[in-house]
């Protein structure tokens, strides 16, 4: 089962400024798009569907919607 990756406007703005943005998108699909509860992610504030993970050198805060198979990235913090 594959999840669609969508980006909220603040995360999309950050992604547009990142070097290697396209390879980051590919890595998101390969990792969190395949298994949003895996890849060393952790629940935020004990909410199972509100998660945080590090993907391709960036901290990603996202929500998982199992009903529509979507991962929505709400915050993206590239590591220096």
Automatic annotation (TrEMBL):
Protein name per its UniProtKB record: DUF4258 domain-containing protein
Organism whose genome encodes this protein: Streptomyces globisporus
Organism lineage: Bacteria, Bacillati, Actinomycetota, Actinomycetes, Kitasatosporales
């Amino acid at each position: 089962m594959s999840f669609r990756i969508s980006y909220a406007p603040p995360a999309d703005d950050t992604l547009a400024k990142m070097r290697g943005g396209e390879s980051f998108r590919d890595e998101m699909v390969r990792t969190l798009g395949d298994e949003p509860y895996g890849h060393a992610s952790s629940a935020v504030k004990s909410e199972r569907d509100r998660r945080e993970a590090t993907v391709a050198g960036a901290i990603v805060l996202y929500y998982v919607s199992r009903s529509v198979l979507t991962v929505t990235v709400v915050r993206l913090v590239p590591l220096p």
